[in-house]
Design goal:
This protein is of the alpha+beta class. The protein contains three helices and seven strands, in the order H-E-E-E-E-E-E-E-H-H. The longest helix is centred in the C-terminal third of the chain and has 20 residues, at 153-172. The chain is globular and about 50 Å long. Bound molecules: ligand K1U and zinc ion.
């Protein structure tokens, strides 16, 4: 089956605040599976439902896998909430929805998240380093926030200009 398309900046659907999931149905299970397929195919280490056009509070994450061997152990988090954020860390982030750009972003160094899994069971996830950064990045997607919203206005402006030029050139092809 065809992979779902990842929305790209400046698609306005990336700016929406996502809705909580009220019931874990087959539709949600299919969405989570499709998102894992997209994450590994891109490749990425996380993906949030709004990036595939679904304004729902769900993301998938796997910061351990690698194309040359690491085990795939995707985690699906439904209706996630932070219960702890501690310390600070600066990480050079990228985003599957923000092509050809990375930038340093300040985040909490260590977090705890409470969420539901696909069986509707409560799960508690503790993370630090890259996994904590990725979880905060994915949580931001659920609130319509991109990592470029967390960099200086100057840097964001320069990227936006470059991206608009890129899109204009693609439209001429
Ligand atoms: O949400 C997304 O767009 C996924 C994004 C997550 C992320 C990466 C880095 C810092 C914070 C959040 C990505 O996965 S970008 C691709 C990437 O980082 C990567 C891809 C393959 C192997 C290792 C990393
Ligand atoms: Zn992203």
């Amino acid at each position: 089956m065809a992979l779902r398309e990842v929305l790209q900046f400046p698609d306005p659907r990336l700016k929406r605040v996502s809705e909580p999931i009220s019931e874990i149905t087959d539709v949600i299970r299919d969405l989570a599976r499709d998102m894992c397929d997209v994450m590994y195919d891109e490749p990425g280490i996380g993906l949030a439902a709004p990036q595939v056009g679904e304004a729902l509070r769900l993301f998938v994450i796997d910061t351990e896998w690698s194309e040359d061997g690491g085990e795939r152990e995707p985690k699906v988090l439904i209706n996630p909430e932070f219960t702890r954020r501690e310390g600070s860390i600066t990480w050079e982030e990228g985003c599957l929805s923000v092509p050809d750009y990375t930038a340093d972003v300040d985040r909490a160094a260590s977090v705890t998240i409470r969420a539901l899994d696909l069986e509707g069971q409560e799960i508690i996830e503790e993370a630090e380093g890259l996994r904590a950064v990725c979880m905060q990045h994915e949580m931001d997607h659920l609130d319509g926030i991109l990592f470029i919203d967390r960099i200086s206005r100057l840097k964001r402006g320069l990227y936006t200009k470059k991206r608009k030029k890129q899109l204009a050139a693609e439209a001429k092809e």
